[in-house]
From TrEMBL:
Catalytic activity line of the entry: L-seryl-[protein] + ATP = O-phospho-L-seryl-[protein] + ADP + H(+); L-threonyl-[protein] + ATP = O-phospho-L-threonyl-[protein] + ADP + H(+)
Biased composition (Basic and acidic residues): 487-501
Span of domain Bulb-type lectin: 23-147
Keyword DNA repair listed: no
Signal peptide positions on this chain: 1-22
Domain Protein kinase: 520-798
Pfam family, one: PAN_2
Provenance organism: Rhodamnia argentea
Keyword annotations of the record: ATP-binding, Cell membrane, Disulfide bond, EGF-like domain, Glycoprotein, Kinase, Membrane, Nucleotide-binding, Serine/threonine-protein kinase, Signal, Transferase, Transmembrane, Transmembrane helix
Record's protein name: Receptor-like serine/threonine-protein kinase
Lineage: Eukaryota, Viridiplantae, Streptophyta, Embryophyta, Tracheophyta
Domain Apple per the UniProt entry, residue ranges: 341-422
Keyword Disulfide bond in record: yes
Residues that, per the record, bind ATP: 548
Family label: Belongs to the protein kinase superfamily. Ser/Thr protein kinase family.
């Protein structure tokens, strides 16, 4: 009897839960019991009771009603869960929303608005943006809303920030763990002190500084990757200081979550895959962590992908011993024995930075940058200045009067910070900057000459700017580059590695490789590339490997080579070929990769019979995989690798036809001198090269985006970019696609051999994405995260592509030459210096 009862009861309960009542509104006459739901009018959101993880604790929360995965965006009683299913949410006689555990007992949770108790009754309703609102029936006055009490999720149209009138401060607080809604240790809020900033705090101290709103973005987020998804409105007036996001496309389902571990993540719901896709997260790299390098110091990422602390101009390490041991946290102090007060001092510009913490800075929006300098110079306590708002070419004045904390450099976008230095330091910088100005002029001249050469002859002579060797200038850097303990050891180890990523790269003997490849016999040879030959090998244990034997004349030293390999070997992603080891012996340098039995993408795509095996779905998956691999190289890996030679023959396919990018990081491994290779050409393949790269040797992540665009168009069309000239021999595939695009005949581009498998609309979208990638101006091209997002989300409205650039043999079809070279100068040269290493 007993056992039967025990069985029937849960079944009954289950039944009750399934036939749960759904309400539209909650008023004095009804109650939401455990199992009932309150739905928003468009049924987008639901409010009800839920449990999380294995716990039997019940919480009242709001979640997406139409998303198949239970995704809670708000919790009422996060601090006081209900232990059984006896909870009930109702409106009490005061007009407040109250949650009772059992009838009549003291409420577990309440909206607790004192002014609710009036002669006017109230009604609670859930809006389609996920806001639970409590409104007086007669006056229609909003007396309470859940958007004012956010938990860990920020939804579109929800405001974060301070209402200066009422003192209400809205901020996110993480859950305690993935399964426990109790408030955790992380928060995300606006700090209004000084020049207001947005912060992510962990355990009450700053963890990541998002920075100030500087007109079009946050100072600590170099690229707003969101314009396709979210638009931001920032308000700072006497009434309030707040931010709010709106969705550009109303049908996009997106949320921003502060995870229990302190990561701010943005997701969109991808209906086809029935999953949330993260399209952005922060903090993203070492330099994002607040004050990583201590005061008066600057954190850089770009050299060897590691972070590097450098003292700001005029400062020196406070604790040189720690500094050499790569602990920069003590920061820097002003060089001893110098005066920066009325003794010929001045300012040195530090470009492309996230300006220091402004919570103690003063702002005066009515000053220009020039006036700002004068103001700062006049005041001996002023340590630095910068413009406060980057809109309209920069205006407003920020001045710092104490330590400069949490400065970092970005690769592509950043502000200029002017740091006060003494007269001697100033003279030193004046000298170097006039030198570098000369260098810039030389580069522009070289580019123009190159362009002329290109235009007048059919031969390509590509010039790569000689990178300045910055090594040795910095103690940390030399430590990375000359790790003495490597000598004689049989494996290359990263001294910086934490316990997690501690992976040694095996150093293999030349004899082992020789025997695996039959002494590099011609029969084992798989191919020949710009960097050397590739052989197939079989190790004694039967493992198949691919051996890349680099051509001998590389300007790089052995240790340097090993270091690069060590770094590259750490990149792991399902869309990258895995580097298994290396071999350095007798002026031989070899890289050992996993062997992939299927051939490269070009062998399928451009072969009349093989291409039949590539239906649309496969092609789309290959393109998406390549995009994700490239995104990882650009953004998610610590190294920020620019591939520079992305093309169909560098995309290998595994047994399941998953794409794997090969040859990434070759420019690093081989050193800059190797870039020109033995064929007198820049690394990179004609047809895949962006104009700024082909013409001026200027490469950036946007050059890879260009190559990706070409690849995408090739995948859709099944035709090589270079080999395409039906009517007009001077046109390549891009020119052809662009022509059809303008005529509205893009369907003609799609490879017929895909037959009915082709989802025409999706293919047309991909063509548009491809055209966006090959736009003439690098800044117009989307970055890889946007591309991944656009590929994954069919609802995203795509921009209209502008005219592409197509470089064909001997001719450059695009805007006028001087303009494209002129705009490429200052910033892009910086990019090549910064990212080229
Ligand atoms: C509740 O029910 C009573 C009696 O049916 C009705 O008079 C009253 O208007 C209802 N109140 C609300 C807020 O609907
Ligand atoms: C939840 O229960 C399952 C099965 O009993 C167990 O494997 C899992 O580890 C539990 N999860 C947590 C967070 O306790
Ligand atoms: C309501 O607010 C008062 C004071 O602000 C507080 O003492 C009380 O505990 C609150 N009640 C609930 C249910 O939160
Ligand atoms: C409630 O009382 C206020 C005055 O205290 C009055 O102005 C208002 O009309 C009343 N509302 C209702 C619905 O009776
Ligand atoms: C939160 O902070 C407290 C005190 O600083 C600490 O004991 C606890 O481990 C932290 N919890 C998490 C999840 O980090
Ligand atoms: C920056 O300037 C622009 C243009 O005047 C303005 O719209 C924006 O609100 C300003 N931002 C701040 C934070 O002052
Ligand atoms: C975002 O863009 C949409 C459409 O362009 C617009 O309706 C909305 O007001 C904008 N929202 C914000 C917060 O700027
Ligand atoms: C900003 O600078 C102007 C010109 O120097 C000055 O008149 C004004 O008082 C300053 N404003 C603030 C808030 O300091
Ligand atoms: C009026 C009413 O239903 N009271 C119940 C409240 O809950 C307790 C225990 O859960 C019951 O014993 C009461 O009968």
């Amino acid at each position: 009897m007993n056992t039967e009862k025990g069985l029937v009861y849960p079944l009954l309960l289950l039944f009750l839960l399934q036939v749960s009542t759904c309400l539209d509104i909650l008023d004095q006459n009804n109650t939401i019991k455990d199992g009932n739901l309150l739905l928003s009018s468009g049924k987008t959101f639901a409010l009800g009771f839920f449990s999380s993880g294995n716990s039997s604790n019940r919480y009242v929360g709001i979640w997406y009603h139409q998303v198949s995965e239970l995704t809670v965006v708000w919790v009422a009683n996060r601090e006081r869960p209900i232990s059984g299913t006896s909870g009930a949410l109702s409106i009490d006689s005061d007009g407040n929303l109250v949650l009772h555990e059992t009838n009549g007992s003291f409420p577990v949770w309440s909206t607790n608005v004192s002014s609710a108790s009036s002669n006017d009754s109230t009604t609670a309703r859930l809006t389609d943006s996920g806001n639970l609102v409590l409104v007086q029936d007669f006056s229609q006055r909003l007396i309470w809303q859940s958007f004012d009490y956010p938990t860990d999720t920020m939804l579109p149209f929800m405001k974060l920030g301070l209402n200066r009138k009422t003192g209400l401060d809205r901020f996110l607080t993480s859950w305690k763990s993935l399964e426990d809604p109790t408030p955790g240790n992380c928060s995300y809020r606006i700090d209004p002190t000084g020049y207001a900033q947005l912060f992510l705090y962990k355990d009450g101290v700053p963890y990541w500084r998002v920075g100030s709103w500087i007109g079009d973005r946050w100072s600590g987020v170099p690229v707003m990757i969101t314009p396709y998804i979210l638009n931001v409105s920032f308000v700072n007036d006497p009434d309030e200081i707040s931010i709010m996001y709106g969705t550009v496309n109303p049908s996009t389902i997106t949320r921003t979550v502060l995870s229990a571990s302190g990561s701010l993540q943005r997701f969109t719901w991808h209906d086809r895959d029935r999953q949330w896709i993260e399209y952005w997260h922060a903090p993203m790299d070492q330099c994002d962590y607040y004050g990583k390098c201590g005061p008066n110091s600057n954190c850089n990422l770009y050299i060897a992908g590691q972070f590097e602390c450098t003292c700001l101009p005029g400062f020196e390490p406070k604790s040189p011993g720690d500094w050499y041991l790569r602990d920069g946290s003590a920061g820097c102090v002003r060089r001893g024995g110098v005066s920066v007060c009325r003794s010929g001092e001045g300012f040195v510009k530090v470009a492309l930075v996230k300006v220091p913490d402004t919570s103690k800075a003063s702002a005066n929006m009515s000053l220009s940058l020039k006036e700002c300098e004068e103001e700062c110079l006049r005041d001996c306590s002023c340590t630095a200045y910068a413009s406060a708002n980057e809109s309209l070419g920069g205006f407003g004045c920020l001045t710092w009067h104490s330590d400069l904390v949490d400065t970092r450099t970005f690769a592509t976008t950043g502000q200029d910070l002017y740091v006060r230095v003494d007269a001697v330091e100033l003279a030193r910088y004046r000298k170097t900057s006039s030198l570098s100005r000369k260098a810039t002029i030389a580069i522009v001249l070289v580019s123009v000459v190159t362009a002329l050469l290109l235009a007048s002859s059919f031969s390509y002579r590509l010039v790569i700017k000689k990178r300045k060797d910055r090594r040795g200038h910095n103690p940390l850097m030399s430590d990375i580059m000359n790790p003495t303990h490597l000598d004689g050891s049989r494996s290359v180890k990263d001294p910086d590695d934490g316990p997690r990523g501690n992976r040694d790269v095996p150093l293999l003997d030349l004899s082992t490789i020789a025997s695996a490849t039959n002494n590099f016999s011609i029969l084992s040879k798989l191919g020949q590339g710009g960097f050397g030959s590739v052989y197939k090998g079989v190790m004694d244990n039967g493992t198949e490997i691919a051996v890349k034997r680099l051509s001998k004349h590389s300007g790089q030293g052995v240790e340097e080579f090993k270091n690069e390999v060590r770094l590259i070997a750490k990149l792991q992603h399902r869309n990258l070929v895995r580097l298994l080891g290396c071999c350095v012996e007798e002026d031989e340098k070899m890289l050992i990769y996993e062997f992939l039995p299927n051939k490269s993408l070009d062998a399928f795509l451009f072969d009349t019979t093989q291409r039949l095996t590539l239906d649309w779905r496969k092609r789309f998956d290959i393109a998406s995989g390549v995009a994700r691999g490239l995104l990882y190289l650009h953004q998610d890996s610590r190294l920020r690798i620019i591939h520079r030679d992305l093309k169909a023959s560098n995309i290998l396919l595994d047994a399941a036809m998953n794409p794997k990018i090969s040859d990434f990081g070759m420019a690093r491994i081989c050193g800059a001198d190797q870039i020109q290779g033995n064929t007198n050409r820049v690394v990179g393949t004609y047809g895949y090269m962006s104009p700024e790269y082909a013409m001026g040797g200027i490469f950036s992540i946007k050059s890879d985006v260009y190559s990706f665009g070409v690849l995408l168009l090739e995948i859709i069309s099944g035709k090589r970019n270079t080999a395409y000239h039906p009517e007009n021999p001077s046109y390549n595939l891009i020119g052809h696609v662009w022509e059809l695009w303008n005529e509205g005949n893009c369907e003609d581009v799609i490879d017929e051999s895909m037959g009915d498998s082709c989802a025409k609309e999706e293919a047309l979208r991909c063509i548009q994405i491809g055209l966006l990638c090959v736009q003439e101006l690098a800044e117009d091209r989307p970055n890889m995260s946007t591309i991944v997002f656009m590929l994954a989300n069919r609802d995203v409205v795509l921009a209209s592509p502008k005219r592409p650039a197509y470089v064909v043999k001997g001719r450059y079809h695009g805007g006028n030459l001087s303009a494209s070279n002129g705009t490429a100068s200052a910033n892009d040269v910086t990019i090549s210096m910064v990212e080229g290493r």
